[in-house]
Amino acid sequence: MNAVLILGCGDVGRRVARACQAAGAPVTGLVRSPQSAVQLRDLGIEALEADLDRPLPPLPSAGTELYYFAPPPTSGDRDPRMAAVLAALERDGLPRRIVYISTSAVYGDCGGAWIDEDAPLRPDTRRGLRRLDAERQLKAWSERTGIPVVILRVPGIYGPGRLPLERLRKGLPLLREDQCPYTNRIHADDLAAICLAAMVRGVSGTAYNVSDGHPSNMVDYFNRIADRAGLPRPPTLDREEAEQQLTPGMLGYMQESKRLRNERMLNELGISLQYPDLEAGLDSCFIDS
Ligand SMILES: NC(=O)c1ccc[n+]([C@@H]2O[C@H](COP(=O)([O-])OP(=O)(O)OC[C@H]3O[C@@H](n4cnc5c(N)ncnc54)[C@H](OP(=O)(O)O)[C@@H]3O)[C@@H](O)[C@H]2O)c1
């Protein structure tokens, strides 16, 4: 088995790590905080504590299957973390292959249209611009070094332990459903399986839309979770009120509407989704309740 290195070994990283460990591969996970390092060690994952915003220690990257799951910084239009990692890989040893989690924000607003991976990349937010910068750096590096890279454009991730229950308990408002954009989702366990498949079957230099193929909107998503959790449905606001009351982050999500086609992911990566829609996915989240 090839050794596995996961840069940004958080929730999705730990799911991928568990599958790699079960297949007998040694796994190292890079995290920033001591608490996350302890969490990895408790799971039998070799933990490397490092901050991608500071000079990097030697990375055990040579010959590895490398999953890059760390986000870009929270400001600016670029991803300097990606630049630092790519330089460190040339210094410390090239991996066999890289799978990178990007976001569907690289497409920007598409007016609710169904889009595949050939849609123009026109981010409307700085978050989207940083991701596009990371994708471009990675592809240019791959062309120069010959190391295969696969890009996954991921929408909202949900699953056990990552539902917006706190927001529902606080009764925070959302934009009215008839004014809400389309949003797309993927269950965290399906995402982990897609990452593993991308490592084996992803075509180098290719981006894959990741989605369960059933877009809806934020109000529908929150209402269904509230109903399952026995919490009140959130209040809703019209756009003018929302602009005054919603956080800039939430407003950013409300300004982009698109429906992701997922055929390339299903066909080229050979994916059969465990949770093909929200109903199936929520069953897994409320299994004990
Ligand atoms: N949430 C969504 O719906 C969504 C949608 C699309 C894409 N994504 C992206 O998908 C990826 C995986 O998601 P996830 O849920 O697994 O994220 P997560 O649980 O937040 O894990 C992110 C990991 O990156 C590490 N990290 C962050 N900044 C770092 C830095 N400066 N230096 C070193 N390590 C750093 C964190 O370490 P610590 O734990 O020590 O902080 C953590 O291990 C992320 O890039 C996320 O942005 C998320």
SSE inventory with pairings:
Elements: E1 4-7, H1 11-22, E2 27-31, H2 34-42, E3 46-49, E4 65-68, H3 80-92, E5 97-103, E6 114-115, H4 126-145, E7 149-154, E8 156-158, H5 165-170, E9 174-175, E10 182-183, E11 185-187, H6 188-201, E12 206-209, E13 216-217, H7 218-229, E14 236-237, H8 239-245, H9 248-254, E15 259-260, H10 263-268, H11 278-285
Parallel strand pairs: 1-2, 1-4, 2-3, 4-5, 5-7, 6-15, 7-12, 8-11, 9-14
Antiparallel strand pairs: 10-13
Helix pairs in contact: 1-6, 3-4
This protein binds NADP nicotinamide-adenine-dinucleotide phosphate.
Q: Any overview of this molecule?
A:
With 289 residues, this protein is an alpha/beta fold. The protein has one domain (4-161, 185-213, 258-274): NAD(P)-binding Rossmann-like Domain (Rossmann fold), CATH 3.40.50.720. The chain is 39% helix and 18% strand. It has helices spanning 11-22, 34-42, 80-92, 126-145, 165-170, 188-201, 218-229, 239-245, 248-254, 263-268, 278-285, and strands at 4-7, 27-31, 46-49, 65-68, 97-103, 114-115, 149-154, 156-158, 174-175, 182-183, 185-187, 206-209, 216-217, 236-237, 259-260. The chain has a seven-stranded parallel beta sheet with strand order 3-2-1-4-5-7-12, sandwiched between helices. The mean pLDDT is 96. NADP nicotinamide-adenine-dinucleotide phosphate binds at residues 8-13, 31-33, 36, 50-53, 69-71, 101, 103, 154, 156-157.
Which key terms come to mind for this protein?
single chain, 289 residues, alpha/beta, Rossmann fold, seven-stranded parallel beta sheet, two-stranded parallel sheet, 15 strands, 39% helix
